Amino acid sequence: MDYYDLVTEAPHSGFKQSKHSLAIRRGGSLDENRKIVRSKAQVLLNPITSGKLTVDSAVVEIAKQRGVAIAISFRQFLVASRFKRARLISAYSKLIQLCLKMKVRVILVSDARDAWEARAPEQLIALGVLLGLNPQQAKWAIAKAPAALLKRGGGYA
Amino acid sequence: MKPFPAVLKERRRYAAFKFTLETPKTDEECSKVLSNAVLTLIGEKGFAEANFSVIEIRRGKGIVRSTHDRLYDMLAAMAFISSVAGARAKCDILCVSGTLKTVRQSKVFK
After folding, report:
1. What fold, for B11-105?
2. How far is B7 from chain A (nearest CA, A)?
3. ipTM of this model?
C-alpha cells in the first residue's frame, strides 16, 4: 500500500508537493478560498468558517476545472454554538447545492482531534443528508470520493 | 368506517444507540440530552413530525423511534451530542431497522 503524507497548512504558506502527498488546505475568506483552488491544493477543507457564504460560483468553477475536492468536517459543526451551527448548516447547504450543480466532488470528514470527536460513518452520512445530499451521495462522499482522490492523486474519478 | 386508514399510517424507524461517557451518568440524564438534541436541531414542528420518542434506555444503551422521513435528522441530532451533564460524551448508532423486534435481536444491540 502506498504511503500518503497528509499535509494541512495555512493558506499562502510555502508548500512543496511530493509524489505521494495529498495537499489539503483549510479555507477561510473568499480571497483565500480562491487562492487555494488556484494553487496546487487537491482538497479545500472547510471553505466556510464564520457562517457567511465565503464561496461563490467562480471558486466552485475553478475547483471543478482543477479537480479540487471540497471537504466538509464534522468537527466544525460539533464545536460550534447553536446559533453558529445554524448559520453553518445554512451556508454549507448553499455550497452543497453549488457543488452538485457544478459536479464538484464533496468529501465529508470527521476531522476529529480526539476519540470524543470521532463519529461513525452513519452519522457523517446523516450530516451529509442534513446539508442537502441524498443518502447515496453522502455515502459516496465519505467512501468513494476520498478513495478516488488518493488513487488518482486529485484527478477526477 | 376505519378509525384511521392504513394507507395514512406513518412508517417508523427504530435506531439502537449507545452512549459513551467520560464519567457515569444516569439513564434519565442521557434520555433528556437525547430529546433536547433532537428538539434543538429540528425544532418543535420537526419534533412533532418526527414523532420522536425514546423507547427504552438501560445502562447507556437504548432504542429511539422516529418516522422514516425524519430518520437522518434524528441521526444527525444524535451525532451532535458532545456532553451529558457536564461530562464529555458521544452517542453512537448501533443499528437502524423498521421493527423493534429486529433491533432487539441484532447482535450489536445485545
Report:
1. Alpha-Beta Plaits (3.30.70)
2. 25
3. 0.89
